[in-house]
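Most newcomers find our protein records easier to grasp once they have seen one. Each record describes a single protein and holds just a pair of labelled lines. A learned vocabulary of local backbone shapes supplies the integers on the structure line. Nothing more is needed to start thinking about how sequence determines fold. The record below serves as our worked example for the rest of this section.
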Amino acid sequence: QVQLQESGGGSVEAGGSLRLSCAASTVSDYCMGWFRQAPGKGPEGVAYIGRFGTIRYADSVAGRFTISRDSAQNNLYLTMNSLKPEDTAMYFCAAGQGCYLDLSGGTNWPYSGRGTQVTVSS
């Protein structure tokens, strides 16, 4: 069981930046990631960082978002730049033995937090 708690969400204008944080019981023993869910839509994988450092991003955020972790503090981060209104969603920190980016088939992370809301206005 992994305990996950997100923070750092908020409201920003388009083009702005936010940094999400996730306090975890561990970030070294699992693949760690972020996914998001907008109202009326299914979950969408955003990024993940594997146990040995492999990083992948969804095409929709590549070049704008950066995932990172602090193993000493057991924190996971998502730095979001050049935010767009379509980035508006609830953002969830997640963990699992496997790494998940394509969630379209109903696959999802086994562990996730309660989420933090990100709202981007035009």
Remarks:
- The two ends are 39 Å apart (CA to CA).
- Residues 90 and 117 are 4 Å apart (CA to CA).
- The mean pLDDT is 95.
- The chain has no helices and eleven strands.
